[in-house]
Amino acid sequence: MSKRTILRRCVACRKLFNRELLFKVTRDYQGGVVLDGGMGRSAYLCRHEDCLEEACRRKRLQKALRCQVPVTVVEMLQKRLNRCIDAAAEAI
């Protein structure tokens, strides 16, 4: 039996991707914002630096989650993005 691919849309570029290729940002039931976990309202962001900049500049994560996103969460996303870029550069 084949596993079905679950697609999600990046809040910045609006393209569909496999859910496993995106960063998940979730507003949990306690009003906090967490990465890659929890249950609640979620927004997805693809692993491109331009999309993170666009999401911050136009407040796409805040609009999608309907709450303020702490600076620490954005910094953690930037660190993860840098690790992904470094890993891709090493693979070449």
List keywords for this structure.
3-stranded antiparallel β-sheet; single chain; alpha+beta; two-stranded antiparallel ribbon; 92 residues
In short:
By secondary structure, the chain is an alpha+beta fold. It is 39% helix and 23% strand.
Q: What does this molecule look like?
A:
Helix content is 39%, strand content 23%. Strand 1 and strand 2 form a beta hairpin. It has a three-stranded antiparallel β-sheet with strand order 4-3-5. The protein has a two-stranded antiparallel ribbon with strand order 1-2. With 92 residues, the protein is an alpha+beta fold. The N and C termini lie far apart (34 Å). It is globular, with a radius of gyration of 13 Å. It has three helices and five strands.
Number of helices: 3
Rg, nearest Å: 13 Å
Structural class designation: alpha+beta
Low-pLDDT ranges: none
Biggest β-sheet strands, sense, barrel: 3 strands, antiparallel
Task: Draw up the topology in text.
Blueprint (H helix, E strand, L loop, with lengths): L6 E3 L6 E3 L4 E6 L4 E3 L4 E6 L3 H9 L2 H6 L5 H21 L1
